[in-house]
Amino acid sequence: MAKAVVFDVGNVLYGWDIAALYRPLIADPERLAWFCREVVTPEWHFQHDAGRPFAETSAELIARFPEEADLIRQFGPRFNETIVGPIPGMLALVEQLAQRGVPLFGITNFSAEFWAPFRATAPVFDHFTDIIVSGAERLVKPDPAIYALALCRFGLAPGEAIFVDDRADNVAAGEANGFVGHLFTGHEPLAAELARLGLLAQ
């Protein structure tokens, strides 16, 4: 039976949107859409989650799009502006779990160099015993190795934690590697599932 909760961060606890950073910098909506589709894309950013430093990835991208150099350089130092605020209801849910003494952990695909400045803005993580950051470990979900590392580091046996993620592939990998899975679609379905498991008050 699950006795702990392991959260993803992006789009589970906090919203994430590259365009939120660039919307004030690129006035033309069509150009903004092109920039976020072709230049600073999620696929390019995911290299940071895998452990590559921004200095390297930005230099490569600037070489491909030299006319966009100034905008590309903004991404690293202003990464926190891509975090668009807490997902409704989720910080309160974490507080409720913490008050009930439920052990809380995280597994997040996140750049190690971007994590520290973001973590400083998010005291909700004070409730977490440990958080595995993919960029620090150079392992990314849904690699089975990151779930094995989590069980070991968190001191959990298979089946002792529910893993909450907004991506079906990550949830499926978690379920295949020792976790009870929950595909996150919002606060209310998750709260209902946690109540069913006895981790949250009805």
Show the helix and strand layout:
Layout lengths: L3 E4 L6 E3 L1 H5 L6 H10 L3 H8 L4 H11 L4 H6 L8 E4 L3 H10 L4 E5 L3 H8 L10 E4 H4 L6 H11 L6 E5 L2 H9 L3 E4 L3 H10 L6
Parallel strand pairs: 1-4, 1-6, 4-5, 6-7
Antiparallel strand pairs: 2-3
Q: Quickly give the CATH architecture of the largest domain.
A: 3-Layer(aba) Sandwich
User: Oligomer, anyone?
Assistant: single chain
Mean pLDDT equals 97
Count of folded domains: 2
Strand content: 5-15%
How are strands sequenced across the largest beta sheet?
5-4-1-6-7
Helix segment tally: 11
H and E order: EEHHHHHEHEHEHHEHEH
Main sheet: strands, sense, barrel: 5 strands, parallel
CATH topology-level fold name of the largest domain: Rossmann fold
Give the CATH level 1 class of the largest domain. Answer: Alpha Beta
Q: What is the alpha-carbon Rg in Å?
A: 18 Å
Helix content: 40-55%
- End-to-end Cα distance, whole Å, is 18 Å
In CATH, the homologous superfamily of the largest domain goes by the name HAD superfamily/HAD-like
